UniProtKB/TrEMBL annotation:
Protein name: L-lysine 2,3-aminomutase
Region (Disordered): 1-21
UniProt superkingdom: Bacteria
Binding site for [4Fe-4S] cluster: 139, 143, 146
Heme among keywords: no
Family as reported in the entry's similarity comment: Belongs to the radical SAM superfamily. KamA family.
Species, as recorded: Thermoflexus hugenholtzii JAD2
UniProt xrefs under SUPFAM superfamilies: Radical SAM enzymes
Modified residues (N6-(pyridoxal phosphate)lysine): 351
Catalyzed reaction equations: L-lysine = (3S)-3,6-diaminohexanoate
Length: 455
């Protein structure tokens, strides 16, 4: 209680409520604090934006062309923008610029091949034991780097009752699914009875162990985290929540209060952060961010390399930037404050962790490692290790099936000797064929073509 009070009274901004842009100065607090008022007064035109910030010509061109990807900004979040600074990190996340319209080499509409992994509309089943369930295309505000801008924001392409029925039916008849991740769009934008109905129906499925919600509502619209909503959510435990924060300036007194309500309801909170050029591509910004998150009981979960999404090319950083940031975290701060840096593989390979190398050398006796300070040490391996005996282990005997997805772990378990590209055997049977077979150069999806050129 003491701690919460301290955070609410002395947040980074210094006041309990964030400042408002002058045009909303006279709105009564009761309206300002009402999420319905915030949603209905969102900014979505150049004229409205000009009332609160001085637009650059680039922004004006971008904001006038939002037919490609909708713009909507809650008054609360818009008020966090520095009206005079075109490089404001809050501003860069929600105000479009003309750069969104550039066709950027290598970028794709559905770079993660989510549509290919969907057994029913809106359900992405990529991993053996968990699914991503897209329940709406709507958000409180729209991130300009949205990984799903191909569907998000389009009010004519929303998910509804019929889709939910099919998604839930698929989950119910697929017993290997133990984790359901509600996303979209933003699930917390749904009317509360519809969201509750989804949670209730998922909870009725015996093999669904945990439910997760991925949401940016606590950041864009913290007013939505009402006592009533939280009381509903906590009925469906174990319920986890991942929020999405990219910059410490997003952690206002309002957000702090919303996160405290969620954490007090026993909802474990994680944060997914996207590494964004011009927003947070700096080890010191990320370090400040993760510290502010853990103060609010939010565990930094993933740091994402920005996806290859059409319209978001100007947000991408080299992967080396992410590695530099991870180097600045490990050892320098609490392990709890360190996210996993991941690249979501184009073509639908899923998230792959990337980190600096700490393992320098190894033989059967010793492992040589370096720490964050550059200190190098030796770990002596045991010489008398009694290997684990799977025949006496009930967990080995009761393994979950992962049909077709045992991968490298499967090789270690002796499922097979090799994993090889399609056509590999034919190409390497050169003695018999005289070397005439050729392995297809492109396996899987071809590289995207821009202006007639393969990139
Ligand atoms: C990110 C993601 C998940 C969840 O992955 P975790 O690593 O378990 O957080 C599940 N399905 C899809 C399709 C995803 O993109």
């Amino acid at each position: 209680m003491e701690e919460r009070k301290r955070l609410e009274e002395e947040p980074p901004g210094g006041k309990r409520r964030s400042p408002r842009a002058p045009i909303w100065r006279d709105v009564p607090d009761a309206l300002w604090d009402d999420w319905r008022w915030q949603l209905t007064h969102r900014l979505n035109s150049v004229e409205q934006l000009k009332q609160i910030i001085r637009l650059t010509p680039e922004e004006e061109a971008g904001a006038a062309a939002t037919h490609r990807f909708r713009m909507d900004i809650t008054p609360y979040f818009a008020s966090l923008i520095d009206p005079e600074d075109p490089n404001c990190p809050i501003r860069r996340q929600v105000i479009p610029t003309a750069r969104e319209l550039e066709p950027t080499p290598g970028l794709m509409a559905d770079s993660l091949a989510e549509d290919q992994h969907s057994p029913v509309p809106g359900l992405v089943h990529r991993y053996p034991d968990r699914v991503l369930m897209l329940v709406t295309t709507q958000c409180a505000s729209y991130c300009r780097f949205c990984t799903r801008s191909r569907i998000v924001g389009d009010p004519h392409a929303n998910f509804g009752r019929r889709d939910y029925d099919r998604q839930i039916e698929y989950i119910a008849r697929t017993p290997q699914i133990r984790d359901v991740l509600l996303s979209g769009g933003d699930p917390l934008i749904l009317p509360q009875p519809i969201l509750e109905d989804l949670l209730r129906r998922l909870r009725e499925i015996p093999h669904v162990e945990i439910i997760r919600i991925g949401t940016r509502v606590p950041i864009f619209l913290p007013q939505r985290i009402t006592d009533e909503l939280v009381a509903m959510l906590r009925k469906y435990h174990p319920l986890w929540m991942n929020i999405h924060v990219n910059h410490p300036k997003e952690l206002t007194p309002e957000v702090t209060e919303a996160l405290a309500k969620l954490a007090d309801a026993g909802i474990p909170l994680g944060s997914q952060t996207v590494l964004l050029a011009g927003v947070n591509d700096c080890p010191h910004i990320i370090r400040a961010l993760v510290h502010e998150l853990v103060k609010r009981r939010v565990r930094p979960y993933y740091l994402y390399q920005c996806d290859l999404v059409e319209g978001a090319g100007h947000f991408r950083t080299p992967v080396s930037k992410g590695l530099e940031i991870m180097e600045a975290l490990r050892g320098h701060t609490s392990g709890y404050a360190i996210p996993t840096y991941v690249i979501d593989l184009p073509g639908g390979g899923g998230k792959v962790p990337v980190m600096p190398n700490y393992l320098l050398a190894m033989n059967e006796r010793r492992v040589v490692l370096r720490n964050f300070e550059g200190f190098i040490s030796t770990y002596e391996q045991p010489t008398d290790y009694t290997p684990h005996d799977p025949s006496r282990c009930e967990y080995c005997r009761n393994q979950r099936p992962e049909p077709g997805q045992r991968g490298i772990f499967g090789l270690l378990q002796g499922d097979a000797m090799t994993i090889a590209p399609e056509g590999f055997q034919a190409v390497h049977r050169r003695l018999q064929t005289g070397g005439t077979e050729t392995m297809p150069l492109i396996i899987g999806e071809p590289l995207p073509v821009v202006n007639g050129e393969v990139l």
